[in-house]
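Researcher: Structure for this, please.
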Amino acid sequence: MEFLFFFSLTGVVIVTLILKFDKKQTVKVNTVLKETRNVPPLFMLKSTEQKIGVLKTALRFDDVPQNMADAASMSNIYNTQSENSRLSKVQELKLLSSKYNNGQISIEAYNQKLDELLEQVQSQGGSFELAC
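Model: Predicted structure, token format:
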């Protein structure tokens, strides 16, 4: 009979400790979830960065003239249809980036628009090569 009482008491103590530990872990998890609610998903950010890199490379993002005088002096290069298409895609990428940076669109919408833009650029193939 003494063993039954001893094991019952030990069981109650163990169950109490487990319940306290569970409550403590639940509070910690809820705290972490509250803190990370407004943090964008890490893998989506990484994916977005990669898409921007691919788009900048495909569109030769750094070759865009900074002002109209430069564009006019390079009219033989920037006068083709593919070059006009490339410049419009670059402008679209800049617009998307500025909207995201200003908080006008969410990371999910930004990522989706980048997917669409990337698909459009890839469908045109190598037509964005420099015609010199």
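Researcher: Any notable elements?
Model: The chain has a mean pLDDT of 82. Residues 1-39 form one domain.
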